[in-house]
Amino acid sequence: MAYDQLYVEYLYYFNVERDYFECHEVMEELWMEEGRNPLHQGLLQVAVGLYHHRNGNVGGAIKLFEQGIEKLEYYPRMSMGINLGKLVNDAKQYVAKLERIEEEPFEFYDLNIEIVHSELEAMVEELKEFPPIKHEPE
After folding, report:
1. What is the CA radius of gyration of the chain?
2. What is the DSSP letter of 4?
3. For residue 58, with 0-12 CB atoms within 10 Å meaning exposed, 13-18 middle and 19 or more buried, which class applies?
4. Is the CA virtual torsion 46, 69, 12, 106 positive or negative?
5. pTM for this predicted structure
6. What are the distances in angstroms from CA 108 to CA 54, 61, 94, 135?
7. How big is the CA angle at 56 (ends 47 and 18), to the nearest 5 degrees?
8. Contact 79, 45 (CB under 8 A)
9. How far is Cα of residue 136 from the mean position of the Cα atoms in its chain?
10. What is the pLDDT of residues 40-62, one digit of tens each?
11. What whole-number distance in Å separates Cα of residue 132 and Cα of residue 7?
């Protein structure tokens, strides 16, 4: 399977750099190029959920996570070279914790996207050596 470079960059920013703003930038570009695929949009929304929580916007984080989960949970557990089912479950657990953050505060933590396809893993590893150029904030 051939993976779009923007998708590989998304995984790199998500799993390696933990730069959820940049995840949004590259995935939005891919989403628009690929005819607004709901799978791409769901992945984008999970990243933005993390971005919002890291920046203290709990309400925004819950909203984006829920929108992302809603789109992603209908796809096969193994999609696009990743364990999508695990990501959906992890995101649902995150939302449950966010909904109780007043009663049970917790520190921000990152999620990981488990890559299950060796070719995709190798492409992400390659970006560790040759990082992509980030988008300039507008």
Report:
1. 14
2. -
3. middle
4. positive
5. 0.95
6. 6, 11, 10, 25
7. 35
8. no
9. 20
10. 999 999 999 999 999 999 999 99
11. 12
Name the 3-class secondary structure at 81. Answer: coil
Element (H, E) at 20: helix 20-33
CA-closest candidate to residue 21, choices 59, 50, 61, 57: 50
pLDDT of residue 138: 59
Residue 77 identity (one-letter amino acid): R
More confidently predicted of 57 and 136: 57
Query: Quick check: 20 and 94 in contact, CB under 8 A?
Result: no
Percentage, residues of the chain above pLDDT 90: 93
Pairing of strands 78-79, 82-83: antiparallel
One-letter amino acid of 10 = Y
Stated as kind and residue range, the H or E segment containing 85 is helix 84-99
